[in-house]
Amino acid sequence: MEAKVYRALLKILLSIAHPSRRARRQFNDRWIIMIYLWSVINDRPVSWACDEQNWEKDQLDCPLPSNATMSRRLRTIGVLQLLERLLMTLTDALPTPLVKTIDSKPIVVGAQSKDRDAKRGRLSERQFARGYRLHALCHDGPCDRGSSLR
């Protein structure tokens, strides 16, 4: 299953326009992202994806970078821009967005309340009160723009 998802992401990634920044780099931005996605799809760390034993034979067509190279390159502007373009392309193609927003709001109960479920917690910096915390998960945008709970 992971290999099928990987191949589908590879096709989408190769269809996205992305200028090559430096010709002398051994590993291009697309290859760095594909190694990263292989680790994410398999729910493993990036260092795991840098080991040839964890890849299928037909998936590798060039050498793998070291873990240090992956760590450094995943923070470069080119890789981050391409990853953002991939995310936007996938978001446009799918009916439910991949990125969701989570927000929480404290709900305070009075000091005389006998509610045993109300716990003491942080309201804001240096403020504590008894009550609850409502958590909302939204995928239409920020939760505070009036979007409904889903």
Q: Could you name the key traits of this structure?
A:
alpha+beta, disordered C terminus, three-stranded antiparallel beta sheet, single chain
Distance between the termini: 29 Å
Strand content: 15-25%
The ordered string of helix (H) and strand (E) elements is HHHHHEEE
Main sheet strand line-up: 1-3-2
Radius of gyration: 22 Å
**How many helical elements?**
5
Task: Please characterize this protein's 3D structure.
The protein is α+β, with helices and mostly antiparallel strands. The protein folds into 2 domains: 2-93, no CATH class; 101-145, no CATH class. 37% of the residues lie in helices and 17% in strands. The chain is built from 5 helices and 3 strands, in the order H-H-H-H-H-E-E-E. A 3-stranded antiparallel β-sheet has the order 1-3-2, with no helix packed on it. A hairpin with a 2-residue loop joins strand 2 and strand 3. Helix 1 runs antiparallel to helix 2 and helix 2 packs across helix 5. The radius of gyration is 22 Å and the shape is elongated.
